[in-house]
Fold these 3 entries.
Entry 1:
Amino acid sequence: MEDFKRLEEIAKTIRRNILTMLNKAGSGHSGGSLSITDILVALYFGGIMKYDAKRPNWEDRDRLVLSKGHACPALYATLAEVGFFDKELLWTLRQLGSPLQGHPDSKKLPGIEASTGSLGNGISQAVGMALAARVLKKKYNVFCIVGDGEMQEGLVYEALMAAGHYKLSNLIVIVDNNGLQIDGQCKDVMNIYPLKEKFEAFNFRTYEMSGHIYKNIMDTLTTAKRNVVSPTAVIARTVKGMGVSFMENRVEYHGVAPSDEELEKALKELE
Amino acid sequence: MEKKATREAYGKALIEIGKDEKVVVLDADLSGSTKSSEFKKVYPDRFFNMGIAESNMVDVAAGMALSGLKPYASSFAVFISGRAFEPVRQSICYQNLNVVLCGSHSGISVGEDGGSHQAIADISLMRSLPNMKVFVPADYNEAYNIVLATVKMEGPVYIRTSRAKSPIITEDKNFESGKAAVLKSGNDVSLIACGMMSYIALEAALLLKQDGIDVEVINSPSIKPLDEETVYKSAKKTKRVFTIEEHSVIGGLGSAVSEFLSENLPVYVHKIGIEDTFGESGTKDDLFCKFGFTKEAVAKRIKDRLNG
């Protein structure tokens, strides 16, 4: 229990940093960053992923590909918190010359495994990384976070088909199922459901979990890592804007940064 | 004269470079046509058929390159440059990855499959992407040596091969990126060619010789980077430049040469290629006749221009 408390405290810090960096940048994606924060904290602080922040190119490391690249403020804040780079860099988000680009750039920032943001390309690259482990005779896992809206991209299904075909048991796909996309609810814009059955149809072992309750996240991801016969999908029920009352489940905050006033209010809630 | 297809060289060269255990080969259900199947016969564990899903194939290649492998991914030129353009841009070029893409069955010489399958804008598309190198071999030897050279090359490469057999006109020697070769020197006109058109350019030059027109024929397999020095020297001498390619006149070799010369040595440039139109079904020879890719048509076109 105590460990979950620790993760919750870390998540608060990361959420504060996400909102502060977005406020300084003046633009960016608040809602989807907050919805994946707890998953990232579990991966990087909960002992799910094997990595060494001092050796970002360590060959045996587990990889995280953020296919929904627009949520990169959450990833940047997490990577900074575990020491991939100086935290001061967070305040340069989206500025000219900053390695913290509007969408993740693997060439510019340590810890970013793939340039993503054009939806669908991240998960396909993750499949390539998982398949490469077989050629390289390595044991690493590849975690890939996709958005639920991203499930509308056809390329996702090409990637799933290949992952199932090659039985990539070192691939764990996590869907950030917050139910919202820019234009509204996923089910209204272009219905993506059912999700579980889709993954199962592509020969994934599929789990559902809460994306915000640490015991549930840790148990599910630990189980997912044990799968040696097929790729795994984890559909995470999440809340867009999680942790900030006035942003929660509000589609208006998909691609909007908090104003000074909103930031102040939000930081108070996250104390 | 011995005839062989450049796609055959791709398959053969893959076997040679397969000695390097970092080399992996991907195809999208066309391995028998692109000839990547040759690699599969020797190194089945490093060959990955990705099914009819070119976009995913290219992204998977990117993921493999990010993991330290050297992927070679092939499909028909029309699909790898068209269907997969987005991952080529977002994943391969944006990350400047060591991935080699091979587009076979390029141009109208695909023949009977028709316009839907004839890539006429692939050079243009690939050339416009930052970091991408674009190579169009004139024959089997050149294609073979291009593939060998790409193993040590940094960054993305696009190699354009052909289905049809064509005469071997270059020597079997090491390929250098950014180098063109003068196949025949001349003083009146520069004729810069790539792919199967290099042979036709040579033949046209022989015809023009009979009319007293001394053509310098340059084979330019490296479209990007372009061998600016060779182009400059020739243009400076002849002051009249013609380009020829089995590709749209928009965005290909002719455009690359024009862009360079217009800024550095404005001389007369005339582009011979596919005139902003699609191909159609037919035999390769019939299509070459229709589209003006015969030595007679090329010679006449150059003569008309010189007189006009």
Entry 2:
Amino acid sequence: MKKLETDIAIVGAGPAGLSAAIHAAKSGARVTLIDENRLPGGQLFKQIHKFFGSKEHLAGIRGFDIGTQLLKEVEALGVDVMLGTLAFGVFGANSLGLVTDQRSYELTAKRIILAAGGQENYLAFAGSTLPGVMGAGAAQTIINISRVRPGKKAVMVGSGNVGLIVAYQLMQAGVEVAALIEAAPHIGGYGVHAAKISRAGVPIITSHTILSANGKDSLESVTITGVDCAFQPIAGTERQIECDTLCLAVGLNPMTELAWMAGCKFEYVALFGGHVPLHDENMKTSVDAFYVAGDICGVEEASTAMEEGHLAGIAAAESLGFIEKEKASRMKAEAREKLNMLRTGYFGQKRADFKKHMLESFACVCKENRT
Amino acid sequence: MSLLQCGYVSKEELVKCPGFPSEERMAKGAVAVIECVQEIPCNPCEYACPQKAVVVGDNITNLPVLREDLCIGCGLCIACCPGLAIFVVNKAYSETEATVEFPYEYNNIPGVGETAEAVDRKGNVVCRAKVLSVRNPPSNDHTSVIKIAIPKEYADDVRGIKRRLD
């Protein structure tokens, strides 16, 4: 197995990984950015909507334009970007096993930032394997990256921001959206996203779930049912909706495999999508060489992922002496301030509280380790 | 019923919303109607306004406040709102008609002079609309702003047109 070396290795070239790479490379560190996909950008290049946020912080810019901007910077800084490369394991204290083009490598890095992102949750029901049933993320890739319509008429399951946004984007791609259903009694995502699709005539049906996907060779209809406050189907409320596409937007979970392999301490945080590696306020995990950023340590948004990436990139570079302490703490304070700002309000405050709780858990875990 | 229950803003929520102009201001002519009722971290509208008629402030989770006396109804804020939640309504357009300007990001954009079906916040068709203008300068970044004329009595309800399928 061929051996490679770098100062800072980053797994995942999404918003968190790209942002980490930019700050690490700016400091003068040798940076290797690894992504299993053919194209960098993570989910950014399929985000064709304008982002929320503060004006000085990319708000009002469409996701794919932000991706292009970050990528340009990464390239200009001479970051070694390894695409189509899978990081399949952690070896020793600070090495990654990589495979690309059917060849494997061992990459030893002084610091490793895991920014692997999240993956979609699935829902099991009768007919859920029929062609035409897919994750909302998959549908988004099909329309916005491949520019193909997955079908003529879709039903969306889940009213979080992914469900609402992808429903909107399906219509932009010329697909009819027959309904959006949500098991909870209220909408999960931003109201403005819901208002957009309501205006387009899409009924948002709360307190309903999917019973079955029906069809002979591919999806022809779905059967939905009303649910009570314990999410149990209410007999007699079943109805059928004709559609050839069913999209599931039922949350994401962090892709934590490498962090487990590295031996990072974890905690289960339902709000963040499952087990998440604990980290300190520098995004460093309980294992010395390993840092985390983005959805891997709590499913949030691209904007928070970018700031966590900044933070991890700065802290990793600082720990290797590439950024002097004073400058680093100034830069880190700025990133933290932006993170705090993004985690405010009706939707953000809960995330802020849990992030704070995670920092406290991290402190406890480290104390236990010492004693 | 609220936005989080049914997916569109109710009249009760709008009245309480600091971006919603008063009836007196509406009667005077074109004015921005900012239907932003949830505290989310976002403030491009504040920067879009050359009149400084939209205020969010340092805490960017604040709801945008419309200073209706300063607003001239130019509509520059419409395409800047990532949530597509800003409209310009002119109830003084004519004796019988009002105009509504709204953001539009679908294909098959109607031409000026064409007739379209005007829809309310639920997507229900409520009346016919005449397309007066379609603006999409580069600064809008592909968000068209369409201005329609509708019978005056629907000015508080109409917030878009029915999407035409391919």
Entry 3:
Amino acid sequence: MAFEPDNELLQDFLIEAGELLNGLDQQLIELEQSPDDADRLNSVFRAFHTIKGGAGFLEVHPLVEVCHRAEDIFNLLRNHEITMNSRIMDVMLQVIDVLNDMFDSLRGGQYPEDVSKAFLKEIEGLAHQDATAPAVAPAPSDLTSDDIPADEPTAVADEDDAFDRMLADLDAAESEAPAASGDSGDDLISDDEFESLLDELHGKGKFQAPAPEANPAAAEKAAGAADSDEITDEEFEAVLDELYGKGKGPTVAATQADEKPAEAAAPESKPKPEQPSQSAAKPAAPAKPDATPPGNSQGNSQGNPKAAEAHKAPVETTVRVDTERLDSIMNLVGELVLVRNRMNTLKTTFENEEISSVIATLDMVTSDLQGAVMKTRMQPVKKVFGRFPRVVRDTARTLGKEVNLELEGEDTDLDKNLVEALADPLIHLVRNAVDHGIEMPDARESNGKDRAGTVLLSAAQEGDHIRLSIQDDGAGMDAEVLRRKGVEKGIVDPDTAERLTDQECFELILHPGFSTKDQISDISGRGVGMDVVKTAITKLSGTISIDSVQGEGTQINIKVPLTLAILPTLMVIVSGRKYAIPLSVVNEIFEMADKEVNVVDGQSTITVRDRAVPLFRMTDWLALRGEKPGTRCETDQVVMVQHGAQLMALVVDSVIGQEEVVIKPLGELLRVVDGFAGATITGDGHIALILDLPGMVRRNTGRGRQRLRSVA
Amino acid sequence: MNQAMEKTRTPEEYDEELEAQDQGPLSRWVNFTVDDETYALNVLDVQEVLRDAEITPIPGAPDAILGIINLRGNVVTVVDARTFFGLEEKGWDENSRIMVIEVASGEIVGLVVDSVAEVIALPQTVVDQAMMAVADDRARHILGIVPQDEKLIILVDMKSLSDISAT
């Protein structure tokens, strides 16, 4: 099959193998902690093997070559012929990077570039660590398959396994070049592999009836064509019977079929009668895709490498759904929520008990539906957290630090969009924690701390939002230094700087252009990072706060809503119009009447629990052209909001209450207008603008506190 | 939406009438007025005409933007044609209409005009001639001017409405 970027099989492969690849990263790091974990070694081996199989089928040769070699190394590792060391780990992590690059180019519709021979050699070289050559193959020699692409004769010599080499030499000698397919070889077929193959066959079988039915026929044909010396058709058919006849539990089949793994491999062969012995000896994994006839069923058989992971997987209960479809369901539910809100508003006008009770039921069902649909979009934070062991390890190594990463609450569920959007900010924060937070081992020791620092990354659900925190036990931050830097860089004026609380000082680092590291390192310190982090978090209607104790460490807390699609808001009325304030920023609401208002330095302030809070009239902020600024009146209510570390008191005409709204984006024409996150259609069919507090503040309290009437 | 088209003769009838006069291929235009001038938009650019809608104003928006409306669950920005053409504001009256059109960015925008009159059919040759006559860069939205029944009809292209926020 030639390389076709929009091939459906390729897309399936990218999704499935991509997931395996993501998992590999974390598994490798875990392996470094516990190098003798046999299960994990096996699962890493299998992952490489599965990726290789798929890539081989799709004829993505560079991918095959890398995976093949990585797989070899892990095969040796799990057979205890070599032991895990940091060199292997380093190279393997590089392998992951290389594979990721290849996946990226495949996703972009590009055939990946060949890997440098030097790198391939480097992987192979790992095997020679303590070369204990033969006695490898537990399988009977005539059943062990090996296939070295003939256009790659160099690869032969580099195989560690002496037995392999012998076989390979034979093969290479025998084969005339064209016969070699792109599928790279496999050293030996173990029980595990065979089982995973069986798993795949069975898992798929339950999914798609035609595939398994087609399977025996195709395999038979292939076997017939192959007609190898060692394997007769009868034998092969017997295996197939076992596979499909009694094969409920793979283990049963495995023990019996075990002895003849090569037979299962037969279907892989592209029938070439003139070269029978070779084609029969193809590896097991690629057998699976070829065993099914071309067409859609291939996609199904191919698209299930996960089965290899789930050992004795029970019946498959999950369905893969395009996120676009979920998004559209979410939108529809959003509309339904609006209708529900509207019904609730109308309910009072009917004064009919029956209607009321129907509406009440609708209300309940809608809420449940909303929750259920939201759940379908949830993913565990693990998806993001999984990358961090690697990030921390790499960063710490580069800097010569010792850092342990602890993860907590990885199973916390989060909206898929949020999971993706949070990845970059979190990576930045974690790197920062390692780079800026944790001290050098010697410095730590002299301060009476462990040489190794700890970074704790945790997630937890708190009501309707998720709290993520990154905590390090490093040097902490010095509020005084930050204050000074803030003044030096012109971010705050000296007077203001004096009045900043410690926490407000810490939050200075969120300003653009603020970096306390005098030297810019590769990792952090360009002074753009924290600003970008903050912008990203704010975009997710989240908040970020920093707490630090000098000498003890720093904790950065991020609060984000559970989902982005539906926003809990506080509905208020300003100048007779409805506005929605995201509930995430609202601290408290109180009556204006009984509070004292003072004017300090031209700024109205209100005293709340002995704290002076700047007071802003929303009628001023949200005045239309030609409207007079509002004046104080008896019924005014104050909404206390949190803007960064700062509290602000916003005066509104009245507060309606809490409402969950669906955000409708404003059109392109309004992109120049700051201060609105979008609009929503309220329960009574009207439109309410959703305030974007940071934008609102920027627009109204900018330089000289000028009222920007028109941005145009 | 069709109820908003004021005349009862269908565009197809117009076509037949004019084609009967043997004037070649035709293009159809929606006539509307702003400050006593008659303009016309290609019928393909107009999605619908609204008689009435509650416009929610946006504090801080450019002058020409009147606000947003709820068009069957979608939020649509509404622009005042008078302000866009550099004329005095007039306010809403019973003849005012919102023409829902698609602008260059692909965004759907409402354009408030003084009134929407009818759909007329113009021979393509007449339109082509009119378009050649206008080459003023300052009035990019004006395609050409066509004489019709002792009046002049200004053919406009509102695609450039999307530039409004950049001015």
